[in-house]
Structure formats: structure tokens, C-alpha cells
Fold these 3 entries.
Entry 1:
Amino acid sequence: MTAKISYADVEVGTELPAQTFPVTRATLVQYAGASGDFNPIHWNERFAKEVGLPDVIAHGMFTMAEAIRVVTDWVGDPGAVVEYGVRFTRPVVVADDDKGAVIEVSGKVAAKLDHNTVRVDLTATSAGQKVLGASRAVVRLA
């Protein structure tokens, strides 16, 4: 696959289509099975509260993976992401109800770099709180 977005067609400030990602307790169980991360803070409410959390929280790597989907969906090729990093600022708290939580992600081209690459800065929030800080990806465009 190759990127579907052309470097020549992108300017600093170009906004990527924002997305929302629902997260339920079932989502966390599925992710735990896929990742092998069965830490009880991600599925056991009693344990999560005993260690000082408000409730069960989403896996940090799950949150990070959902956020980069805004970039990979925009560029059309997950392999176009050449660098990605975040700082975890707040947990995504997932209630035990039919709604769970929602992660809202937006992105903007922050810089045009060499070799047809751009830096995309992402903003990820849940329940009105920023859950990822310094969330940046370098992406190679067509």
C-alpha cells in the first residue's frame, strides 16, 4: 500500500477528519485477550478502586492505537506512519454500563518535513479531559 494523500496537497494547518471511538468493558476484555495484558485495573472495578483509580481504565496502548487510526485512515496506509509517540496524561475511565467511554481524536498537520513527510499533532480526549499529551506522528505522503 502507499499513502493516498499527496505531499503537494497538504499545508501546515490541514485538519484530519476527527473520529470518536467507543470503549466498553467488552472492548477492554477483547483487547486484553489480543494483547496479553490482563492487568486487573482494566477489568476489575474493585481492584481498580483499591489501587486509587476512579474505576476500570482502558489500556494505555489501546488508547494510543485508537488515536493513530485518525492518521492511518486519513493517509490510507498504516505503513506510511514512520514515527509515533505519546505521553499518557489521564486514564480513559470506562464505566460498567451500556455506554462505557468515548475517545475523541482530532489531528492537524503541524509541520512539513523533508522526504515527503509531515508531522501530525493529535488531540485525544475522553469525558472532556485530555488523555494523551505530546501525541505526534511523522507520516510519509505520496
Entry 2:
Amino acid sequence: MRKELPEIVRADEWAPLVIRTDYTDDAAWRAVVAELERGAGDREWESPVHLVDDRRWDGVTSDEALVAAARDEELSVVFLADGVTMRSPLRPLLALDLGADDDQDLDPVFYQELIDSPPPREVRVVPDAVHLVHGNLQLANVDFPEFAEEAADDPDGVVRDL
């Protein structure tokens, strides 16, 4: 049975959405928040981050988070602070592509290759790169698979803000 998750109401569509889904290490969470806030302060164009720190999200899977975040039709990506985030010294958040479901109704006559090998729908992002990923996806400057390629080329498997 799926959890009934609270609705997320963002005041600013340019604020990346970060949901805490792991409550095992409060110090690690504070470090993630500090890194997110530090990244937001470096550039004038960046919005603050919309943080969801509510124990009702504890243990939520990426699929559950995708369903809940998809209620916001303006949102293109959601970031999860999960167990990997809390245990890794890089604090990489799990970025989930909300646009991936757009491929569900593809005609197999023309798109069989895409149906057989769907593009990645998740990638790890260091906190400093959250605004970069969110902003570019919101503006449609970059597609999610491009960020996945960037992470694949990184020695730690993460997207970084250059």
C-alpha cells in the first residue's frame, strides 16, 4: 500500500524542490542544507531552494516521490536527499526526471528504439549543481539525458556545477 503523501506547494517555480527522505543523520542533513544555501548565494539569478523536511516523507521511494511531485505540472525535476545523500561525503542528491513519462504513448512504428532503451530518469547531483540542473531543465536548455551523460563521465558518477 502506498503512503498518502502531503501535497507540495511551492511559492516559486524557479526554486528547486528538495525532499528529505532519509532521517538517519540530522548532521548530514544540515550539511546538505548548508551546501544548498551556499550555492544559492553565489549567483544573483538563483532562487532559494524549496526544502521539504517532513517525516511523512521518511523512506519514500523514488517512484512514490515521482508520483507526488508530478502533481506540480510546472516541475521538471525533483531532488531527493536519501540514504546515499546522507552517507556519501559528496552529499549527492538523487535527481528524478518528471518529464520521462512523456514517452509513454510513443508509436512503436517510429520509436521502438526509444521504447526498448528509455533514457535515464535519475542521476546524482552534488548540492552545488542543483540550481544548474533545475534551471536548465526548467528552461529546456538541456535534456535530462545530457546530465546523465555528464554524470557518467564524472569519476564519482555525479553532476557537478562547473
Entry 3:
Amino acid sequence: MGVAAGPIRVVVAKPGLDGHDRGAKVIARALRDAGMEVIYTGLHQTPEQIVDTAIQEDADAIGLSILSGAHNTLFAAVLELLRQRDAEDILVFGGGIIPEDDIAPLKEKGVAAIFTPGATMASIVEWVRENVRQPTEA
């Protein structure tokens, strides 16, 4: 991952059929308020749309919000598309209703972090700052 100029850029996405986006919007706002550039894709995005957006927007990370129970399939699809597009330098993290038993397998597939209900906005912002590229001073 190279060090690019400017603020950290994060695509926040709601993949699949899940229609509840309050949490994603709260995360997007917290990251934005922390000085990051946030691209929120809206509801019902396909993995292809999410990866296309991340590449087009020169994102440093993708944050997926999944409440539908399809997290294993959707995270895997996004990670595979990033591999296929030679964009594995885009870090993938996520959150939502994800059973504890599924977290370790998701991390083994390449998901950098999973935030479950109860995670604070401060802890998510801190994690992104510490694990996504460091912004350079202008």
C-alpha cells in the first residue's frame, strides 16, 4: 500500500438485499467528521458495484455494513473481486450482525476487522486511522 497525499478515503457500502442503513450512515458520518473522505454507495449494492466504486474513487478502504446474514458470501465476493482487479491494497473491514463464530473465518479470508453491535464510533475511527494508510501532511 503506497502512501498517497490527502485524507484517508473510505467507501462505505451496504451490499446485498439489506435495507437498513442507519448504522452505515452513522459510521460514514463519524469517519467524515474525523477528517476522512467518505463515499457512501447507498443501499442494495452488488459486490461488483462496490469494488468498481472503490477503484474509481481511489479508495484506501472499503467498509461493509451487513445485517442480512449474507456476510460470508458478500465479504468473500468483494475480496475475490479485489484480487481479480489487482486491488488488494484496498483494505476491507466491516460490521453488522455477524455471529462471533463467523469472525475468525472472515479474517482468515482477508477481512481486516469486524465491528459488531456495541462498537463505539471512536474505536472504529481509531482502528481506521491505525490500520489504513497514514495521510501525508500537505
